[in-house]
Amino acid sequence: MQESMLTIFDNVNQRVVDDLRDQLSAHPKVAIAAASFSIYAFEALKEELENVDELRFIFTSPTFIREKQKKEKREFFIPKLNRERNLYGSEFEIKLRNQLSQKAIAKECAAWIRRKVKFKSNFSDETMLGMFNIINSDKAVHASAGTALPNTKCNFSYTPFNDFTTADLGLAKGNSMMNMVNRIASPMAETYLRKFDELWADDSKFADVTDRVLEYMETVYNENAPEYIYFITLYHIFNEFLEDISEDVLPNENVGFKNSVIWKKLFNFQRDAALACINKLEKYHGCILADSVGLGKTFTALAVIKYYELRNKSVLVLCPKKLNENWITYKANYTNNPIAADRLNYDVFFHSDLTRDKGQTNGMDLERVNWNNYDLLVIDESHNFRNGGNIDEDFDISDDMVEDGEKRKENRYQRLMNRIIRGGAMTKVLMLSATPVNNRFNDLKNQLQLAYEGHSEDFNSLLGEGKNIDDIFKNAQKAYNHWAKLPPKERTTERLQDELSFDFFELLDDVTIARSRSHIVKYYDTQDIGNFPTRLSPISRRPKLTDLNTNESLNFTDIAEMLNQLNLAIYTPSYYIYESKRGNYDLKVGGTNGLSIDGREKGIRNLMATNLLKRLESSVNSFRLTLQRIETRIKETIEKINEFEEKSLNSIAMAAEDKKRSIASTSEKQGDHTTSFSLSHFTEDLGNNDESDFASFIGKNNSIQLSDLDFRRWRRALKEDLETLRLLLLMLKDITPEHDSKLQTLIADLKEKFAHPINPGNKKILIFTAFADTAEYLYAQLADRIKADTGMNVALITGNTEGKCTIQKFPMSFNNILTYFSPISKDKAHLPHPLDEDIDVLIATDCISEGQNLQDCDYLINYDIHWNPVRIIQRFGRIDRIGSKNQVIQLVNYWPDMELDQYIELKGRVECRMKATVLTSTGNENILESATESEKDDLEYRKTQLQKLQHEVVDIEDMDTGINIMDLGLNEFRLDLLAYIKDNPDVEHAPCGMDAVVAHSPMAKPGVIYILRNRSNEVNIDRKNLLHPFYMVYIAEDGEVICDHLHPKKLLDTMRHLCRGKDAPDKSLYGLLNQETQDGRKMDKYSDLLHQAIESIIDVKEESDIDSLFSVGETSALRGEIKGLNDFELITFLVVK
Question: Tens digits of per-residue pLDDT, 95-111?
Answer without folding.
Answer: 666 677 788 889 999 99
